[in-house]
Amino acid sequence: MSNVTDLPKIPLTSPLYKSYSNQLRSYLSQSYMTLIPLIDQIRALRELKMIQSIRKKLKKLKLILRETDKSGVLHIGSAADYERKAID
User: Fold this and answer.
1) Could you tell me if 62 and 81 are in contact, meaning their C-beta atoms sit under 8 angstroms apart?
2) Residue 80 banded pLDDT, cuts 50, 70, 90
3) Could you tell me if 64 and 75 are in contact, meaning their C-beta atoms sit under 8 angstroms apart?
4) Which helix (H) or strand (E) holds 1?
5) Domain residues for 68?
6) In the chain, what is the straight-line distance between the N-terminal and C-terminal CA atoms, in Å?
7) Which of 3, 55, 83, 88 has the CA that lies 20 to 30 A from 17?
8) The predicted structure's pLDDT at residue 27
9) Rounded mean pLDDT of 25-36?
10) Could you give the residue ranges of the DSSP H alpha helices within the chain?
């Protein structure tokens, strides 16, 4: 099955298709349409504002935030330094 056209086709009028479609719709509604608790909404907004603030400051000061290695350590350096190192 190397091509998308080789996949088996289920007619749209098939009871199997309708059953699957209804189950999928139900699952997606339960998973993605339920309300998030207020405390989580407040936390998400606070984190969004913090990230936006950090991005704005990095851009204003022409700084770059990079992960140094697999351990997740972050390094902040000037964009000019990174450009200079890239040329060398």
Assistant:
1) no
2) confident
3) no
4) none
5) 4-87
6) 48
7) 3
8) 93
9) 88
10) 15-32, 38-60, 79-87
